[in-house]
């Protein structure tokens, strides 16, 4: 009987410890389950955020490629690239006009050909040209400043460094085993308690069998308690694994959210699109081809103006040569006419002297008329200016350059 009481007391203590062990294991397991559930959900959301962030980085890469193409297009645009060259050619033609001093013999009030240029229209053209080119290059530099390939590369590096490959722990399935072990201890305690009640009414054989059964069970209780303690440690280990998983998720979440927030705040893609639109608007407007056409026409006009001036000088010399040739012809003709008239006059005088006294005047009253007479009248509309020839001008210019070289 004393042995039964001892086993019952031991079973009670064992049951108390088993309940405590199972209770602790249950708390760890429930906390791990709740933590795992939240972390798995957070992990899934993190995966979606990673896809979205990767998409934003991909958009940045695409916009980088488009920016490079657009910048290259602006640099190599034939019409826009011509503007500076056309402007230089125009300035060169204007320089020639400034250097072209008018011949004083023309009697012009202007010192050179540039004096005939409409400065107001020319300045208006240059103002529009500066506005267009400045607008394009300002937008070009603004867009170039947003290229920031290093920042895009850093975003990729930071995104690649955030690992989401870790897997959630497998659910802990030891709870049922611990419950079964607790049930065994509880049943043993119930058997011991019941044996104390019925022991006195049993036969010796029944008592012996009961004692053997309870002895076996009592000897097995320490093993059950050891299994319960092992189960608690395994539950704690599982709980620690879940916490580590949670820490990984939290750490990756912090890094990824920070990166995503920077991308959103930076608004680099949107700012690039705005700058690209500004550049395209400035670059594809109608003013660029219009300006190019005006520059071409003006340069051609001023170049032809200078050529026409020198052609005018040549024309004056050609006319002077013409007058000289004509005057020579006229002088020769006048001399011949005078000779013929003198011969004819003498012949008529001789005729009248020899036969005039015998011819009545009423026979032909024109017999005493003078010879046929011609008058050559010069009609000079405008006296030709005595301009210097191009040969003289070149000789004078070469002489001046030679004197300047000697002084140096």
Automatic annotation (TrEMBL):
UniProt keyword Hydrolase present: no
Annotated protein name in UniProt: Autophagy-related protein 17
Location in or out of the cell: Cytoplasm; Preautophagosomal structure membrane
Topology relative to the membrane: Peripheral membrane protein
One Pfam short name: ATG17_like
GO biological process: autophagosome assembly; mitophagy; piecemeal microautophagy of the nucleus
Domain of life from the UniProt record: Eukaryota
Main location: cytoplasm
Coiled-coil residue windows: 242-276
GO cellular component assignments: Atg1/ULK1 kinase complex; phagophore assembly site membrane
Similarity field: Belongs to the ATG17 family.
Source species: Schizosaccharomyces cryophilus (strain OY26 / ATCC MYA-4695 / CBS 11777 / NBRC 106824 / NRRL Y48691) (Fission yeast)
Function (record text): Autophagy-specific protein that functions in response to autophagy-inducing signals as a scaffold to recruit other ATG proteins to organize preautophagosomal structure (PAS) formation. Modulates the timing and magnitude of the autophagy response, such as the size of the sequestering vesicles. Plays particularly a role in pexophagy and nucleophagy.
């Amino acid at each position: 009987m004393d042995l039964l009481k001892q086993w019952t007391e031991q079973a009670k203590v064992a049951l108390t410890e088993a309940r405590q062990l199972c209770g602790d294991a249950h708390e760890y397991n429930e906390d791990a389950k709740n933590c795992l559930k939240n972390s798995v959900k957070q992990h899934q959301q993190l995966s979606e955020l990673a896809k979205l962030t990767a998409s934003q980085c991909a958009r940045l890469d695409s916009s980088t490629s488009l920016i490079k193409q657009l910048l290259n297009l602006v640099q190599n645009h034939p019409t826009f690239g011509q503007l500076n060259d056309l402007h230089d050619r125009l300035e060169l033609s204007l320089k020639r006009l400034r250097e072209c001093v008018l011949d004083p013999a023309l009697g012009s009030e202007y010192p050179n050909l540039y004096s005939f240029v409409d400065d107001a229209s020319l300045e208006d053209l240059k103002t529009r040209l500066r506005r267009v080119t400045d607008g394009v290059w300002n937008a070009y530099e603004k867009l170039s400043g947003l290229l920031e390939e290093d920042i895009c590369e850093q975003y990729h590096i930071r995104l690649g460094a955030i690992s989401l490959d870790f897997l959630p722990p497998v659910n802990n399935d030891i709870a049922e085993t611990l419950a079964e072990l607790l049930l065994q201890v509880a049943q043993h305690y119930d058997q011991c308690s019941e044996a104390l009640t019925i022991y006195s009414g049993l036969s010796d054989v029944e008592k012996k069998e009961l004692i053997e059964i309870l002895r076996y069970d009592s000897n097995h209780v320490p093993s059950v308690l050891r299994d319960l303690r092992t189960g608690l440690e395994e539950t704690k280990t599982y709980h620690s694994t879940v916490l580590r998983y949670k820490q990984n998720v939290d750490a990756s979440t912090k890094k990824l959210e920070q990166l995503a927030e920077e991308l959103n705040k930076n608004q680099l893609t949107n700012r690039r699109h705005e700058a690209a639109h500004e550049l395209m608007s400035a670059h594809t407007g109608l003013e660029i081809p219009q300006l190019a056409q005006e520059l071409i026409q003006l340069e051609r006009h001023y170049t032809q103006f200078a050529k026409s001036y020198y052609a005018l000088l040549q024309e004056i010399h050609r006319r002077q040569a013409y007058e000289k040739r004509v005057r020579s012809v006229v002088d020769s003709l006048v001399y011949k006419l005078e000779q013929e008239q003198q011969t004819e006059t003498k012949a008529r005088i001789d005729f009248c002297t020899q036969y005039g006294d015998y011819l009545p005047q009423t026979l032909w009253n024109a017999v005493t008329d003078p010879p046929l007479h011609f008058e050559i009248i010069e009609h000079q509309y405008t006296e030709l200016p005595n301009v210097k020839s191009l040969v003289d001008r070149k000789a004078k210019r070469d002489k001046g350059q030679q004197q300047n070289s000697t002084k140096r």
